[in-house]
Amino acid sequence: MYERCPHCGFVYEREEGYFSSAMAINLIISELLIAAFTVPLAATIPLTQLLIWGAPAPFLLPILFYHHSRGLWMSMDHLLNPVLRR
């Protein structure tokens, strides 16, 4: 990962704990997606099939969305605290 944006100078690496909110965003998005798909499926398919197909989701979704949640958190930070050119 680059240290700064070559165009605007936005610093990517911050203090320790900066990306804790990105992890929270990742958890919220992952859990909402799981709930959005499993609740309707629970009414239509048997429980054993739901467990077989749905069990990997809580492990795979946070891994798949980690980089996206980091980017989302950094873009929200950049929107609220823009880089001032000097």
- The overall pLDDT average reads 86
Task: Count up the domains.
Answer: 1
Q: Major beta sheet, specifics?
A: none
User: Proportion of β residues?
Assistant: under 5%
Query: What is the helix content?
Result: 55-70%
**Count of DSSP helices?**
3
Task: Set down the secondary structure blueprint.
Blueprint: H1 20-42, H2 47-54, H3 57-80
Helix pairs in contact: 1-3
Write up this protein.
With 86 residues, this protein is mainly alpha-helical. It has one domain (20-80). The chain has helices at 20-42, 47-54, 57-80. The protein starts with 19 loop residues before the first helix and ends in a 6-residue tail after the last helix. The mean pLDDT is 86.
Outline:
The chain has 86 residues and is mostly helical. Helices cover 64% and strands 0% of the residues.
Keywords:
mainly alpha
